[in-house]
């Protein structure tokens, strides 16, 4: 129990620092804004209590907002995916493998499942974020372009992080 709390607290800090100190400093034009920090929310164990999931997502989003000059936008988009995550798990995870405490990652469910999961959740997050940024559906073309371009890069970065961590876990 304590070991899990420490592990997730470390993961929270690590993803926040990676986002703020590394990913936010990568400038890929006005269209692409990758957000790797959402992997923290996506990788929390299945069956994480809803209140803890929402508080963790809000804190992560608020942390990124504090360093990104985006007042509440990351917090709102993160809350949305945290809210939808349990429902998506029920739809995407085969019932025979749906066990509370299971990590929704490549090692547990395979690469194809993980890519689908990350793409869906990242697209929801990015669409919500860029809609909040635009504050209008009038610029829906730009929102969709930014959401897809950013989602593509974010998914690639999340996969790299996941494959790196799965590889290091297997070597132990």
From TrEMBL:
<protein>
    <submittedName>
        <fullName>Rod shape-determining protein MreD</fullName>
    </submittedName>
</protein>
<keyword id="KW-0133">Cell shape</keyword>
<keyword id="KW-1133">Transmembrane helix</keyword>
<keyword id="KW-0472">Membrane</keyword>
<keyword id="KW-1003">Cell membrane</keyword>
<feature type="transmembrane region" description="Helical">
    <location>
        <begin position="113"/>
        <end position="132"/>
    </location>
</feature>
<keyword id="KW-0812">Transmembrane</keyword>
<dbReference type="GO" id="GO:0005886">
    <property type="term" value="C:plasma membrane"/>
</dbReference>
<comment type="similarity">
    <text>Belongs to the MreD family.</text>
</comment>
<dbReference type="GO" id="GO:0008360">
    <property type="term" value="P:regulation of cell shape"/>
</dbReference>
<feature type="transmembrane region" description="Helical">
    <location>
        <begin position="36"/>
        <end position="63"/>
    </location>
</feature>
<dbReference type="InterPro" id="IPR007227">
    <property type="entry name" value="Cell_shape_determining_MreD"/>
</dbReference>
<feature type="transmembrane region" description="Helical">
    <location>
        <begin position="144"/>
        <end position="164"/>
    </location>
</feature>
<feature type="transmembrane region" description="Helical">
    <location>
        <begin position="75"/>
        <end position="93"/>
    </location>
</feature>
<feature type="transmembrane region" description="Helical">
    <location>
        <begin position="12"/>
        <end position="30"/>
    </location>
</feature>
